[in-house]
Amino acid sequence: MTDSFDVVVVGAGSAGCALAGRLAGRGVRTALVEAGGAVPPGDTPIASLAATAPGHALNWAYPVALARGREGTVPRGRALGGSSAINGGYFVRAVPADFAGWAVPGWSYDDVLPYFRRLEDDLDLGSDTARHGDRGPLRISRPAGRLRAPATDPFLAACAALGYPSEPDKNAGGPPGAGPVPTNAVDGQRVSAAVAYLPPPWGRAAPLDTLTVHSDLLVDSLVLEGGRVAGVRAGDVELHAEETVLAAGAVGTPALLQRSGIGPPDTLRAAGVVVRHELPGVGRGWSDHPSVYLPLRSGLPAPHPDAVAGQASLNWDSGTDPAGDLEVLLFARPFAPGGPEHLMCALQRPDSRGTLEIVSPDPAASPRLDYRYLRTVSDRHRMRAAVRVGAEVLRAARWRRAEGGPDGSVLGNDTRLDEWIQARLTTSVHLSGSAAMGNGPDAVVDAGLRVHGLSGLRVADTSVLPTVPRRGPAATAIMLGERTADLVSGQG
Ligand SMILES: Cc1cc2nc3c(=O)[nH]c(=O)nc-3n(C[C@H](O)[C@H](O)[C@H](O)COP(=O)(O)OP(=O)(O)OC[C@H]3O[C@@H](n4cnc5c(N)ncnc54)[C@H](O)[C@@H]3O)c2cc1C
């Protein structure tokens, strides 16, 4: 079967839903293609991370190497809504220093602020119209009332007692501190990108005659006609378009580019793929936040069943980054009934860079992902600092270290603390920069998100962020979808 559209968007995740919904809303005939299916109602409550478990139907479970001797399995959303349908619901914008550091013309914080405002209806702070939106499709709120966990205020009080400043609005673009986490949830109900931007039966947007949604359809490769991308191929389906936009996420997008013969020649040849267009940066030089969980027993009552797990966070400067390169996030809900609560301690501006390589042209084969975490002295030093501050917060809150948590003999000794971290090292699942924007030799897209050297092809997902932002990327991914709608329709 072959069909034609103005625009084909690959991937109905955070960015893809926003982009497709906005384009179709302007009368652009848009096809949205998603490998996963619809999320059954009530299947991914914001309070639960059940859909992130390996083997769950709503996620891709990628086998990965996190660091030397440390392997893992990494989830990503595989559903309408993508990772926004299964993630933790922490919805904090990238900070002004992230955009300044990327230094891509047209992508300063001031340039993107209108899109952050446009995407949201901030139920707490929407009246602050200089910083916030009050009519966007994504409803944002902070834990309050019955949905504020009993541990949240003691956590914030402990941070204050240790001298950290308060940051009551983590989306204000101000200096880092301790404050409640904004979430894309209202009354405990998740508002995924599909819920916000797609019409029924997938979401709550107004009906869109110009939108065609193909779910459960895995895109194999791009249709290349010389230097022009004419659409996508998925099994025996071909969807042609004036413009193709990849929003398949920071793993799916570089993998699809490589399968289509676009990427580093050595990687493509090793995987048995014919080189069509050399772009050395596809799948290389990306970053993500390394993290560890510090277990604790607060002795406080369990949070309300609908309360989001990640309630409040402390962001601070390790000494080299005033915008805050470290984070401690309170996970007030135990991962299993009767288990401990946790402080997630994370390095938010790592030096380490990862690689992604397909191993075969088969779209069902997982790419090889090597995070290369904690390779630098500075990363190891700052990771220790994150854990030590987490332990100080725990003590200041008068909570107990739970089984497996580091005691004084570990916290006071770099070698032992490194071993403790290595044994528990995980990732925050914030991969960014696997098809980075810019003009350098490793850049994959330009400031208009067009793939260098090809026509008819853009990328709009966290692949394009040159480095992982200092905060989780969910809000920034949706901003990218909003912005790309303007770029594609000539309004940006
Ligand atoms: C478990 C988990 C928890 C997280 N928690 C948080 C959090 O609390 N806060 C935060 O800020 N960030 C969080 N993140 C990260 C954040 O959710 C993502 O970075 C963001 O949603 C990425 O958006 P995206 O549009 O780039 O990609 P995604 O939302 O991942 O969307 C990509 C979509 O493309 C589809 N796709 C991929 N390949 C193909 C193909 N070949 N054909 C068709 N479709 C394809 C996928 O199925 C998916 O639906 C979390 C991520 C995960 C996985």
What does this structure look like?
Helices cover 23% and strands 24% of the residues. The chain contains 11 helices and 25 strands. It is globular. The protein starts with a strand and ends with a helix. The chain has 2 domains: 1-66 and 73-141 and 188-287 and 353-373 and 428-492, FAD/NAD(P)-binding domain (3-Layer(bba) Sandwich); 144-180 and 290-349 and 375-424, Cholesterol Oxidase, domain 2, CATH 3.30.410. Strands 1, 2, 10, 11, 12, 13 and 25 form a 7-stranded mixed sheet that branches. A hairpin with a 2-residue loop joins β12 (228-234) and β13 (237-246). The protein is an alpha/beta fold. It binds flavin-adenine dinucleotide. Residues 10-16, 33-36, 52, 75-79, 82-84, 86-90, 218-219, 247-250, 252, 256, 363, 429-430, 461-462, 472-474, 477 line the site of flavin-adenine dinucleotide (FAD).
CATH architecture of the largest domain: 3-Layer(bba) Sandwich
Rounded to an integer, what's the Rg over CA atoms?
21 Å
Distance between the termini: 34 Å
In terms of DSSP E residues, the strand content is: 15-25%
**Oligomerization state:** single chain
Outline the fold blueprint.
Blueprint: E1 2-10, H1 14-25, E2 30-33, E3 59-67, E4 70-77, H2 96-102, H3 109-119, E5 120-122, E6 138-140, H4 152-161, E7 178-180, E8 185-186, E9 189-190, H5 193-197, E10 211-214, E11 221-225, E12 228-234, E13 237-246, H6 249-259, E14 262-263, H7 265-270, E15 277-278, E16 284-286, E17 290-297, E18 310-316, E19 326-331, E20 341-347, E21 354-357, E22 368-370, H8 377-396, E23 400-401, H9 408-411, H10 414-424, E24 426-427, E25 457-459, H11 474-488
Parallel strand pairs: 1-2, 1-13, 2-10, 3-22, 5-6, 13-25, 14-15
Antiparallel strand pairs: 3-4, 7-18, 8-9, 11-12, 12-13, 16-21, 17-20, 17-23, 17-24, 18-19, 19-20, 21-22
Flavin-adenine dinucleotide is lined by residues 10-16, 33-36, 52, 75-79, 82-84, 86-90, 218-219, 247-250, 252, 256, 363, 429-430, 461-462, 472-474, 477.
